[in-house]
Amino acid sequence: MGDWLTREQRSRNMASIRSKGNVTTEGAFISILRKAGVSGWRRHLRLPGKPDFVFRTQRVAVFLDGCFWHGCPRCYRLPHDNRSYWEKKVAGNRKRDRLRSRELRSLGWHILRFWEHTLKSPRGRAHVLAKLSAAVRGPRALSSRHPKGRVA
């Protein structure tokens, strides 16, 4: 189905929509970091691709990819309206993600990307924490700060 608005109307409509800044996803990630006692992270440093979180000393950049905007293979559903626009939009986002990750790796950064849905379940949070721990401090680094020596 084609768009029922003219190009000018759609452009004006889309330009008026403002981002809310990924608040819930980033908040969930911050909660994981704080519960595990992980420190040394910064948010939104000026690096290629604008990583959501950065561990400068360890040169680790973390991206939290929204399932809709980045085309999660598990969650993404193509909208029925204006399908060609959304196909191009999401494909472009995924291509840009690959290019920025490649660019950061060439500058010596380790890249971690997590889907939005992984932050919603206990199992997913444990997976995120384990990968982050391995990248930032080594595989057993968090066990000394977590009760009973568990990572999650």
Second CATH tier, the architecture: 3-Layer(aba) Sandwich
CATH class: Alpha Beta
Distance between the termini: 46 Å
Structural shape:
elongated
Strand order of the largest sheet: 1-2-3-4
Structure explained in plain terms:
The structure is a single chain. With 152 residues, the protein is an alpha+beta fold. 41% of the residues lie in helices and 11% in strands. It has helices at 7-16, 23-36, 83-106, 122-136; strands at residues 42-43, 53-55, 60-65, 110-115. The protein has a 4-stranded mixed sheet, with helices on both faces. Residues 139-152 have low confidence and may be disordered. The protein is elongated and about 50 Å long.
Short description:
With 152 residues, the protein is an alpha+beta fold.
Outline the fold blueprint.
Blueprint: H1 7-16, H2 23-36, E1 42-43, E2 53-55, E3 60-65, H3 83-106, E4 110-115, H4 122-136
Parallel strand pairs: 3-4
Antiparallel strand pairs: 1-2, 2-3
Please give a handful of descriptors for the protein shown:
four-stranded mixed beta sheet, alpha+beta, 4 helices, 152 residues, disordered C terminus, 11% strand, Endonuclease, Chain A
